[in-house]
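Supplementary Methods S3. Complex input for the shikimate-3-phosphate-bound model.
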Amino acid sequence: MQNIRQLANLALIGFMGTGKTTVGRLVAEALHFDFLDTDELIQSRTGKTIADIFVQDGEPAFRELERQIVLELSTKTKTVISTGGGLPTNPDNLARLKSYALVVCLWSSPDKIWNRVKNQTHRPLLHDPDPQKKIQELLAAREPFYKQADVLVNTDVRNVREVVQQLVVQYKLATREHQ
Ligand code: S3P
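Predicted complex, serialized as C-alpha cells:
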C-alpha cells in the first residue's frame, strides 16, 4: 500500500548550526506560512531551557517531548517546522513528519558547523571536552537519517538567500506534483 502524503507543511531537519531556524523563518515569510521551532515549543511548554531539560531531566525526557510534539503537529497546515538536530534520529519521528510535510535537510560539513557554533553555549550536546570531535562523530552517526529527507540542500556552497530560494522552489515543485 502506498503511503498517502499531505505536503501541507515544510519541515526542516539537519544538524545543529546548519541554519534551520534562520532559513525556516525566511521560507515561512516567502510562502506566507506560519513558523514553528520544536525547541522553542519545548522550552515554552516546560518553562525550561533545553540545556536545563538535559541536565535536570535527562536526554531521554527531551526526546520524549520531541516525539509528542511531532505527533501533535500533524494537525498543522501552511507551517514551516524547524526541528532540533536529533529529532529525525527517531525513525518514527521522520516517518510521521513525512506524512504531513515535505522534509528538507540542510546539510553542512563538520568544519562549517564548527565555525558556526563554536562561540555559542546553549547546546548541551556540545558541552564536551572536544566539541569538534563530537560534531564529527554525531554527524557521521546521523547522516543516514538526514539523508532520508525528501530534499537535501548543501548550505556550504550557498548563502542564506540562495538556500531560501532553493527551498521555496522545491516546495512549489513538490506540491505541484501532488495536485
Ligand atoms: C540537538 C539539537 C538542538 C536541540 C538540542 C539537541 C541535537 O537543536 O534540539 O540541543 O541532538 O542535535 P538545534 O539543531 O536547533 O541546535
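The longest strand covers residues 101-107. Residues 38 and 67 are 10 Å apart (CA to CA).
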